[in-house]
From TrEMBL:
Enzyme Commission no: 2.3.1.31
Pathway(s) of this molecule: Amino-acid biosynthesis; L-methionine biosynthesis via de novo pathway; O-acetyl-L-homoserine from L-homoserine: step 1/1
Family: Belongs to the MetA family.
GO terms under cellular component: cytoplasm
Site features described as Important for substrate specificity, chain residue numbers: S192
InterPro entries for the chain: Class_I_gatase-like, HST_MetA, MetA_family
Active site, per annotation: C142 (acyl-thioester intermediate), H235 (proton acceptor), E237
Keywords linked to the UniProt accession: Acyltransferase, Amino-acid biosynthesis, Cytoplasm, Methionine biosynthesis, Transferase
CDD domains reported in the protein's UniProt record: GATase1_HTS
Name of this chain's protein: Homoserine O-acetyltransferase
Residues involved in substrate binding: K163, S192, R249
GO biological process, one term: L-methionine biosynthetic process from homoserine via O-succinyl-L-homoserine and cystathionine
Organism: Lentibacillus salicampi
């Protein structure tokens, strides 16, 4: 949230030069406030777990947020009960006549497929087209980030030689950008994916800004110039134990996944991994909600 200061306070100029969000008394008196309406397109198989992870982060701000969950009509998930979907989820046909302040498109375990081979690709592109005119800002996560980069900006994914799996250090290119306000120069984030996107292709696109890369140089936080599309290639929403559960699940299926890098203490799978990215997860979501949704969305859409 912004700080409200007297209009002529000398410190306000210095704060503005540091890109700290300052609101003077005149604007504060005339600012209308209402709940934010956020739509979550949940493409993850274990929907109830993803709901909890995202709601935990969206609920940690002073803003009042109304949440709606969206599911695909062209694909019926098998890892969640029909009762849960029918009671708590809506379809795009039911939601498309509304406008939303923010949209979150989650990841999905379908990286091995070309985008056009995904059963709900046409539906997803229709949602992304609709969001351009009916959503203030969209946050894309992991596969959802790759889908957004491909559809909106022509940046394709490519297969990695092995699963990019673990907790990695990341660096910020410009700490004055509001999305990463408060971030440390180096911070940790989880990744779990078999594909990546080209840093060169992102750098070459004038509509995109690369805000953060991993220690290996992999793109992590990418933002469009207007802030309407924000792509996060990892999983900042993950709990401390999520990668451990993925590791165990892979091995139970006969997939020889390596131990997640920089995750278990001393690479001992019997030890509990620390949650080293929690604070930056909350910062990322609160910055997105404040600067790119709340401060940018109209009070009345019409």
């Amino acid at each position: 949230m912004p700080i409200n200061v007297p209009k002529e306070l000398p410190a306000s100029d210095a704060l503005k030069q540091e890109k700290i969000f300052v609101m003077d008394e005149d604007r504060a008196r005339t600012q209308d406030i209402r709940p934010l309406n956020i739509l979550i397109l949940n493409l993850m198989p274990e929907k109830e777990r993803t709901e909890l992870q995202l709601l935990r982060l969206l609920g940690n701000t002073p803003l009042q947020v109304n949440i709606s969950f969206l599911r695909t009509a062209t694909h019926r998930p098998s890892h969640v009960s029909p009762h849960h979907l029918d009671n708590f989820y809506t379809t795009f046909e039911e939601a498309k006549n509304r406008r939303f302040d923010g949209l979150i498109i989650t990841g999905a375990p379908i990286e091995h497929l070309d985008f056009e081979d995904v059963t709900y690709w046409d539906e997803l592109t229709e949602i992304m087209d609709w969001a351009a005119a009916n959503v203030t800002s969209t946050l894309h996560i992991c596969w959802g980030a790759q889908a957004g980069l491909y559809y909106h900006y022509g940046v394709d994914k490519y297969e990695l030689p092995e699963k990019y799996f673990g907790i990695y250090e990341h660096h910020i290119s410009d700490p004055t950008v509001k999305l990463v306000h408060g971030f440390d120069d180096v911070f940790h984030a989880p990744h779990s994916r078999y594909t990546s996107v080209s840093r060169e292709a992102i750098d070459a696109n004038p509509d995109l800004t690369l805000l953060s890369v991993s220690e290996q140089g992999a793109p992590f936080i990418i933002m469009s110039g207007d802030g309407k599309n924000i792509m996060i290639t990892g999983h900042m929403e993950y709990d401390a134990g999520t990668l451990a559960e993925e590791y165990e699940r892979d091995h139970s299926r006969g997939v020889a996944t390596a131990v997640p890098e920089n995750y278990f203490p001393n690479d001992d799978v019997n030890r509990e991994p620390p949650h080293r990215w929690r604070s930056h997860s909350h910062l990322l979501f609160s910055n997105w909600l404040n600067y790119y949704v709340y401060q940018a969305t109209p009070f009345e859409w019409d």
